């Protein structure tokens, strides 16, 4: 029996070897057709289990397919990263809704938005996450909109980025001391204090904002209002800088540091063309704003000091109302909110969008002019939106308001000292300096922004970026606007 079983086992082994050879050849032909990735291999192995029992041998064959692969690095163009987009437009009714609609239709969620508005122009600073390829498509779509003068992705170059945050914290006698120490460490400011709360103001880059929130969250955050991020490019040194010739036109002594023929051959910056019929034929590749050396440069190209002028109550009750809304942090919500405002014919004077104190919720702070009756109807329309959690009109409550501005000024050595003296009076901070410019950061109310910008216009303003208003109700009940009308106690 053992002699008879040996030929049978040999025949079975030959048969299994033939089957394995056919399977191997079929996998080889299949891989050549489907073009497998070079980093993946298909291994065909023959596993035989032999067990000896009673002098008999049984051969079992199995085919196992193993796919080995190594993770390939993700191409740079397909990596998701955060982008800061600057959009400079000729202001018109509904422009905010149209720009927000470009992102909403493509499923992009706007993380933060800061808008500086004039009667005839506006600057949007938008922070959104996505791949470079898809973001490039969004930029191209924005360029197709009417009255859009310039769209840039500021993330590709060194920049000064800032945002403003107001935080209302729970505080008692045992925790106020520790909160004040943190305020000093992060160079923050106290803007309101009551028996059970503290409201602090913080400015800085997004990393500083995250660090502040991580340290104060243990005390309990009652309310949070953040502006969107604003950014200006850091100015380069020397005659190759975008604003060199603009500064040299104001300060002739700057021209002496470079050969005269270097600037005499080209009177206009090479990356800028003169406007035709009030529009820009070509945009500057190095500036947030296009720059020209005409006498009316400040009026036509830079947002002037009177943008977004707020209205006090008149005899008819018409005034600017400050609205705060808590909405879901999801794509298309901003488009819904601004759509309600534009459809009802209201004008937006200020808009700031940023994260709220609750994860997954954003806070929208906007300023809309109207009477108490008309704004009340607008608030009712907001409440009908599914994505809106809460709407508050803070106009008739004492509230702390703040705005943030970055302003780049043309200077020489002498003018730089004068500008720094003015900045010291307004408690503004220098955040970037070159041999021909200086960039200042200022926080405060609307009137403070106007006063500083008007003083600096004489030196030559290169570019300006500004957030909208953010506000929180004062728990102390002190209204600083009312106090301005009374004389100080003796």
UniProtKB/TrEMBL annotation:
Gene Ontology cellular component annotations, sorted alphabetically: chloroplast; cytosol; peroxisome
Protein's GO biological process: isoleucine biosynthetic process; L-leucine metabolic process; L-valine biosynthetic process
Record's compositionally biased regions (Polar residues): 47-59
Domain spans labelled ACT: 84-156, 322-396
UniProt keyword ATP-binding present: no
An example Gene Ontology molecular-function term: acetolactate synthase activity
Record keywords: Amino-acid biosynthesis, Branched-chain amino acid biosynthesis
Disordered, as annotated region: 47-80
InterPro entries per UniProt: Acetalactate_synth_ssu, Acetolactate_synth/TF_NikR_C, Acetolactate_synth_ssu_C, ACT-like_dom_sf, ACT_dom, AHAS_ACT, AHAS_small-like_ACT
UniProt key word Amino-acid biosynthesis: yes
Biased composition (Low complexity): 63-77
Pfam families according to UniProt: ACT_AHAS_ss, ALS_ss_C
Associated pathway: Amino-acid biosynthesis; L-isoleucine biosynthesis; L-isoleucine from 2-oxobutanoate: step 1/4; Amino-acid biosynthesis; L-valine biosynthesis; L-valine from pyruvate: step 1/4
Family (UniProt): Belongs to the acetolactate synthase small subunit family.
Annotated protein name in UniProt: Acetolactate synthase small subunit 1, chloroplastic
Species of origin: Olea europaea subsp. europaea
